[in-house]
């Protein structure tokens, strides 16, 4: 029976190799082990036990290979860490590869109770409030594209940035403690899309626009679209010393009201330049209800849109020289200045493009037109020559448009609905195909042609994915030195992949083995994502991350990343009253808070500091004050502060919300609020 099962399924070469490996691991021959005989099925190479399990579970040799490639035994760590957008959750997902185990959901734009993110702790409230839009609290985000910080074009494991498309915001997360430190709201545009992407030394965080609007989203009728509406791309200045974006040293470019889409930073030979797609160069304004063509038709009439080619280094000089206007207090380089200074060029790009991705060496820009079955490859060298030759026409706004044939390197037919491209270490590129619901592997040319045996600029392999892939992400895939090995397909639809959980289905992340050349892509694993809809992710080698195990000192404030003036040691606990203000300095340690009684009066204003004085790895305490929406997570060494007005009298039990010790249930206290009269 076992033999039949094997013969029924063709073993792939890779599968055979791994199964042979498994022979070695499980039992290389009939052998005696502490008196037990382990028999080996010679046809499958698996031990009789393993063969029986495989047969019982209906596993094919391919399944077994995939399992062996992804299984990470208990206690062992993953080789790669993927930082994925958490989609509408507003959070960031941290996932290990190849196991596809979810390690953490980092609170970013949305309150997250377990991390005490947005439930009273002052620093967390301050960061979330930075993301308010004109005074309106915004507590969700449509997160799209995380970007790891880079040094010399390689991920350095220090920071990760994340954009919010819905409200035009960018967040900064510090990878020393995996906590969000800053949110900036774009003052020029209400909405964004082409962010966050970073330049090779993380001097700039790129945030491109999307749906054009008057700058500062001021009112103007759609009849004035061409005159009043504008696109933008913003360059946020990042200060590595402070770990913060500096809005005062940042700037935006005013652009024609095309809908700018994804951006990517140039690297190595193209460092200092930035490339962004646009669509709706038709400047359609919709209005299906009035008999106008809907956006989907109106914005898809032309065969070509415009790739935006931006000289960022020069733009930064122009901004520093003060040749800017102010929009909501933010520096914006006017379009006419950009044209006069040679900051922006266009190149025609087919057709309703979406992804733009720069090759590892920076030589080529790969564009995917959603309505074109090709990817189009532009040469940076040719772009430079065309700019120097000055042989161009202009668009309606006076922006120079380079000639398509002057800058084109290659076009490769990959399939239907190409969206995004990634790169590996073997001279291959990978493009997601939304409509074909496949990932295409194709061979790069130029310097990359030496890395593979295929003809340059040709399709090599296609892998089905389930279903409707958006982004794909390869290990270290946006760096100057991609690792190859793994690719994750971030699929929009799951359909039949998982148990039905009602009409709203999970998203499906699929792990693909890209380690072997040629026609060898293998799907390894499906991971349902319980929050939607993530767009992009980046994968870093796990050993590049060096987060703290505990905070560096007792009394640490994660929001300033320094010792908090109200952080205390055990023995310094106290309660002080000053008029109607009561201030509490409390410590937490297994298994008690000090003090355990807090006696106040109705109407008091309470300022409460708690320090977790633990130095042990993983000794986190929680703190919940019911009735006041207060919940803290106090990691070892951390100090947090919250304030509230004790409007109601009564008896309140505060307690530790982390099962920290055997006597965790006893880690509690009473807040007694005496009625005011
Ligand atoms: S981008 S797949 Cu293509 Cu924001 Cu969503
Ligand atoms: Cu501290 Cu439970």
Widest β-sheet, arrangement of strands: 10-11-12-13-18-17
Q: Tell me the structural class.
A: mainly beta
Name the hetero compounds present: (dicuprio-$l^{3}-sulfanyl)-sulfanyl-copper, dinuclear copper ion
CATH class of the largest domain: Mainly Beta
Question: Could you give a short account of the major beta sheet?
Answer: 6 strands, mixed
What name goes with the CATH superfamily of the largest domain?
YVTN repeat-like/Quinoprotein amine dehydrogenase
Number of helices: 11
How far is the N terminus from the C terminus? 85 Å
Q: Which stretches are poorly predicted, pLDDT < 50 over at least 5 residues?
A: 1-35
Shape: globular
- Number of DSSP-assigned strands: 46
Total discrete domains = 3
Description:
The structure is a single chain. It is built from eleven helices and 46 strands. The protein has 677 residues and is mostly beta strands. The protein folds into three domains: 3-59, no CATH class; 80-285 and 295-544, Methylamine Dehydrogenase, Chain H, CATH 2.130.10; 556-674, Cupredoxins -  blue copper proteins (Immunoglobulin-like). (dicuprio-$l^{3}-sulfanyl)-sulfanyl-copper is lined by residues 144-145, 193, 354, 419-420, 470-471, 535.
